[in-house]
Specification:
single chain, Rossmann fold, 2 domains, 10-stranded mixed beta sheet, two-stranded antiparallel ribbon, 15 helices, about 15% strand
């Protein structure tokens, strides 16, 4: 029974951020999420609230409900659940709702609801966590989020089909939405419908995605552009646009190079670097490691079996210094350390494993015989219960949304990487195209140093190899945080993220 629980936890964790990269068979998908949807529009619950952000009291309306997606024959296909927060316009300035920006937010998976960005980062209520990022409890509680962006922009949190309370209608197969293209099209159509129903066509518009949500955001930005809906900005939190940067597949040496700076950051955090290297400031140290990875490590890996034995020994010594791992382990791994091997071995003598989503957070090694952390990801288990309990209480209590449906925070889905075919999925071109067609579109990328799921240097690599035109590059801003995948669970990082995004919203493209 314990083994089964561990397997299930790992499957859910993988589904949250980085699904198994494989082409599914083209066949019916009758998952548990294929429950009939609720009638759209009639279920909206609208409530009034107030939150203090900084020194300002912000009055706002919260709307929880669904919007129905239809085909060209007006047949209902699916209903997407959302929660929207709209601040009261500034009457003294003759403000109108249309004058306020609106940001559409979603998480990733595929198979994740928007609860993480909603209840951990941007929304007016936030799960009570300590400074590191552990949810405090049980019992858990919500607190007003004094770092919400609601004073700057209205917020719409979207749960893609089969997550949250979003469901397909009877007679619709979930596979129509469980694909790269189907997902992008459905979220873009939801946004079109929402701005139409709420008279927000003239509002400044933004997207915010986390993890696979950044993959979605790049595709949705391009799809909206094709619909004549131009965006002002896209916020990418823990970005993955090219899956080649993350997949430790045979013959793909790129991830080993791109993960190395993150390994160094975590070895530094846990005090595992040698001598004076441990005493150095992290940003300067990471600059050195990035340079080494590009100019020494990468070319050496390209040699394969032709690498000279002396060079191999020298490289193993240097990698041991930068990672805190044993030199022999690096040699036995042929100079290539995948994420799970690093996370399972850095603190192995202490019988501890690192969290994949946040390597600062450690937990007990539940299976010392395995190479890696197995099913135990302490950085997920420390927050899962708090977000689940508080959202279910909040949506039915504070927001008055009555339903007995199960809110799918993490849903196992069979995902079709249709656009990737036999290649790695890469949507960086979608973002490049959207920026080329809309010279006012700006991009902000938030990256955590301690993220073992989507390492910051992989995002840098993808952006620098896809967004190459000087005018476009000036419209991309990176923010770096001493936190993990969910940069916002770390209180100082959330404060920094808010400050940088407030500036981002106030800036104009050249």
């Amino acid at each position: 029974m314990m083994l089964l629980r561990l397997v299930l936890v790992q499957l859910l964790a993988i589904a949250w951020v980085l699904p198994i990269y494989a082409q599914p068979e083209e066949k019916a998908d009758h998952s548990a999420a294929e429950q009939p949807a609720m009638s759209a529009g009639s279920d909206w619950s609208i409530t009034e609230h107030e939150v203090k952000i900084g020194e300002k009291a912000v009055a706002y309306k919260a709307t929880a409900g669904t919007i129905q997606l239809k085909d060209q024959k007006e047949k209902a296909k699916a209903s997407i659940f959302f929660i929207a927060y709209t601040a009261e316009p500034d009457a003294a300035a003759n403000g109108r709702p249309q004058d306020r920006p609106v940001m559409f937010c979603f998480n990733g998976g595929p198979g994740s609801s928007s609860v993480w960005l909603h209840m951990g980062c941007f929304g007016p209520r936030r799960v009570h966590m300590d400074d590191v990022g552990h949810a405090i409890g049980p019992p858990y509680e919500l607190k007003d989020n004094a770092l919400s962006l609601l004073d700057t922009t209205d917020l719409v949190f979207i749960d893609p089909v089969s997550t949250g309370f979003s469901r397909v209608e009877e007679g619709t197969n979930t596979s129509e939405y469980h694909s790269v293209s189907g997902d992008i099209n459905s979220v873009a159509e939801f946004i079109r419908l929402w701005i139409t129903k709420n008279d927000r066509w003239l509002s400044p518009k933004y997207l915010a995605g986390e993890s696979y949500g950044t993959t979605r955001a790049a595709g949705v930005a391009n799809r909206l552009q094709a619909k004549g809906i131009s965006l002002n900005g896209v916020v990418l939190v823990s970005a993955v646009l090219s899956f080649q940067t993350l997949r430790f597949d045979e013959g793909n040496d790129l991830p080993y190079q791109l993960y190395l700076p993150t390994y160094t950051a975590l070895a530094h955090y846990h005090g595992r670097l040698p001598g004076q290297m441990q005493q150095r400031k992290l940003p300067a140290l990471l600059d050195e490691v990035e340079d080494f990875s590009r100019k020494v490590y990468g070319p050496a890996l390209m040699l394969g079996a032709e690498i000279d034995d002396d060079d191999k020994q020298h490289l193993a010594i240097k990698l041991a210094q930068y990672t805190g791992l044993d030199k022999q382990l690096i040699l036995d791994s042929n100079l290539r350390i995948p994420q799970w091997r690093f996370g399972g071995n850095l603190l192995k003598e202490q019988s501890k494993v690192l969290g994949r989503f946040d390597g600062r957070i450690v937990g007990p090694d539940l299976d010392k015989a395995t190479d890696g952390s197995g099913a135990n990801d302490p950085s997920y288990s420390r927050v899962a219960g708090g977000f689940t309990a508080t959202f279910n209480d909040y949506v039915r209590g504070d927001l008055g949304y009555e339903t007995d449906m199960d809110y799918g925070i993490l849903v196992g889905v069979r995902w079709n990487y249709d656009r990737a075919k036999s290649n790695y999925l890469n949507v960086a071109g979608d973002l490049r195209k959207a920026m080329a067609e809309n010279p006012k579109l700006r991009v902000y990328v938030a990256a955590g140093y301690y993220d073992l799921a989507t390492p910051y240097h992989a995002a840098e690599y993808t952006i620098s190899h896809s967004i190459t035109h000087p005018h476009a590059r000036r419209r991309v801003t990176f923010g770096y945080f001493e936190s993990g995948h969910m940069v916002f669970t770390h209180q100082p990082s959330l404060e920094k993220l808010r400050a940088e995004l407030v500036d981002f919203f106030s800036e104009k493209a050249d």
